[in-house]
């Protein structure tokens, strides 16, 4: 989705050099995979890979580090994850001072059950919840403009209210988002004034505001990590 690939280079100190596109530095397991080879790892190996990506990468100065967690340092670290409570998420919450977590969920009830569990998991490891994001919130017909709530409506907003956190935004089910993601050029660059582009920009702005306005309790609760 970032149009990045190829062999990963290392610095003289042995740190991974993250490739960059759209002024965003990236590190991904996908950079090390060949074709459709699956990753079949258990928890300890997954946590070791996360440590390598976080602390074994020459990130340089960053405004924010976003860790995008698939299902099942740093002035600020935002964790953005689809629903789930796996070893990787718990390991991050226990070993690093996280500035906050953003829970992403689609509107249907089954997805929201996992989203709520994920939110409670972060609270148990003292990671502040910055808010919820509703993905695939609605489909808007490009021909007639009719809006259809294919996966239901109101569920993510209700979950956010129950958890006492804001609904940061709603991202539509949109073919242009899919196309731009496939070619590695974000819709916020090609169509920033579109409803989808504005949704992403608004979410990012709210996350930034939440990070700058609220103290991070996780920093007080988590140990300082040093690397010898």
From TrEMBL:
Keyword Ion transport tagged: no
Family annotation (CDD domains): Mrp_NBP35
A matching Pfam family: ParA
Keywords for this protein: ATP-binding, Iron, Iron-sulfur, Metal-binding, Nucleotide-binding
Top-level taxon in the UniProt lineage: Eukaryota
Species annotation: Tetradesmus obliquus (Green alga)
Family in the record: Belongs to the Mrp/NBP35 ATP-binding proteins family.
Record protein name field: Uncharacterized protein
């Amino acid at each position: 989705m970032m149009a990045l690939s190829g062999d990963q280079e290392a610095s003289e100190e042995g740190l991974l050099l993250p490739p960059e596109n759209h002024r965003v530095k990236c590190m991904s397991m996908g950079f090390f995979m060949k074709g459709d080879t699956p990753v079949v790892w258990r928890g300890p190996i997954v946590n070791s890979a996360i440590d390598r990506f976080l602390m074994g990468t020459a990130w340089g100065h960053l405004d924010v580090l976003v860790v995008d967690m698939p299902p099942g340092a740093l002035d600020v670290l935002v964790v953005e994850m689809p629903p789930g409570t796996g070893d990787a998420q718990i390991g991050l919450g226990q070993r690093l001072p996280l500035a906050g977590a953003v829970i992403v969920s689609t509107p249907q009830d089954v997805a929201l059950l996992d989203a709520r569990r994920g939110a409670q998991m972060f609270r148990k490891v003292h990671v502040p919840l910055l808010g919820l994001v509703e993905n695939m919130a609605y489909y808007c017909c490009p021909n007639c403009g009719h809006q259809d709530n294919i996966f239901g409506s109101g569920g993510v907003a209700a979950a956010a209210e129950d958890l006492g956190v804001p609904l940061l935004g709603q991202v539509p089910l949109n073919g242009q988002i899919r196309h731009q993601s496939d070619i590695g050029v974000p819709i916020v660059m090609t169509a920033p004034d579109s409803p989808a582009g504005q949704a992403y920009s608004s979410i990012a702005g709210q996350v930034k505001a939440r990070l700058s306005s609220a103290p991070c309790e996780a920093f007080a609760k988590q140990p300082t990590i040093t690397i010898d």
